[in-house]
């Protein structure tokens, strides 16, 4: 934020304040100094900040206006697995999962250790930033998986508009978002937009459902390949309005479901009901 907003901080002590989990917010000058010391680059933060500012649009609107172009991705017809692929498979569907995994933004490294430490206390501002990154990562992932970038742009937007909240839930569970985040999300939402009593009740109900869904997914110990398949199943839905080729999108959903089923049967042979449980946990 200091880089993006071109702020100047001043240390009130001797420019050597302790910066740890419990004191990191007491001196912004020393906190920035430590960030730069351990390798944070100003230009990287400036690029990230300007990209997010250019998208005062929502992530979905950014897709619609072409501001999040898809990265180079393999031809979906070429599903050969590379050496050392964790799937240890050779089928067409295993190759499909491999490409889904390559599109993953890997939240544990992207968002840092904060996301993975249940006992870490995060402030509202940190929570809002994490939530925004989770949402943008869902769009980034979709833009880089097989087949989705080849759909009509209107279909891409329609699908993301419909399922962004489900993808957010799955990303939150996948990065092991601490459970105390839900109340903070609620507090941030209520602070940002005053609501009537009825809307507050409905909003808090959504937060409760969000927390329950994340807890249930965590309890299943879903692995990365399963998360990728589940997100593809959620994304390729024919429930969106105005799709230009609903039959094709339905076939992509079926492909994703078949890939998940094959993977689960191969990797979890002692859990015959696991595939069904995963489908029941779809947000």
From TrEMBL:
The keyword Transcription applies. Keywords: DNA-binding, Metal-binding, Nucleus, Receptor, Transcription, Transcription regulation, Zinc, Zinc-finger. Residues 1-47 form the Nuclear receptor domain. It comes from the Eukaryota. Gene3D superfamilies: Erythroid Transcription Factor GATA-1, subunit A, Retinoid X Receptor. CDD domains: NR_LBD_COUP-TF. GO terms for molecular function: DNA-binding transcription factor activity; sequence-specific DNA binding; zinc ion binding. InterPro entries: NHR-like_dom_sf, Nucl_hrmn_rcpt_lig-bd, Nuclear_hormone_rcpt_NR2, Nuclear_hrmn_rcpt, Znf_hrmn_rcpt, Znf_NHR/GATA. This is Nuclear receptor subfamily 2 group F. The gene is NR2F2. Residues 92-283 form the NR LBD domain.
């Amino acid at each position: 934020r200091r880089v993006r907003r071109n702020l100047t901080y001043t240390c009130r002590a001797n420019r050597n304040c302790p910066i740890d989990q419990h004191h990191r917010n007491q001196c912004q000058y020393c906190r920035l100094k430590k960030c730069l010391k351990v390798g944070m680059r100003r230009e990287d933060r400036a690029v990230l900040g300007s990209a997010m500012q250019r998208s005062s649009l929502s992530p979905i609107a950014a897709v619609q206006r072409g501001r999040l172009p898809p990265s180079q991705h393999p031809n979906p017809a070429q599903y050969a697995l590379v050496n050392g692929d964790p799937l240890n498979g050779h089928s067409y569907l295993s190759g499909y999962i491999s490409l889904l995994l390559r599109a993953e933004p890997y939240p544990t490294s992207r968002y840092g250790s904060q996301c993975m430490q249940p006992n870490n206390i995060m402030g509202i501002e940190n929570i809002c930033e994490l939530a925004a990154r989770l949402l943008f990562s869902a769009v980034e992932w979709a833009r880089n998986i097989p087949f989705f970038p080849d759909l009509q742009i209107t279909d891409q937007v329609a699908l993301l508009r419909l399922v962004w909240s489900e993808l957010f839930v799955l990303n939150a569970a996948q990065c092991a978002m601490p459970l105390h985040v839900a109340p903070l999300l609620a507090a941030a939402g209520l602070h940002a937009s005053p609501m009537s009593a009825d809307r507050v009740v409905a909003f808090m109900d959504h937060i409760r459902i969000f927390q329950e869904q994340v807890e249930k997914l965590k309890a299943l110990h879903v692995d990365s390949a399963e998360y990728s398949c589940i997100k593809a199943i959620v994304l390729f839905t024919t429930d969106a309005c105005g799709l230009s080729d609903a039959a094709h999108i339905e076939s992509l959903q079926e492909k994703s479901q078949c890939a998940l089923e094959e993977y689960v049967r191969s990797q979890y042979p002692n859990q015959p009901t696991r595939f069904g449980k995963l489908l029941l946990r779809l947000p």
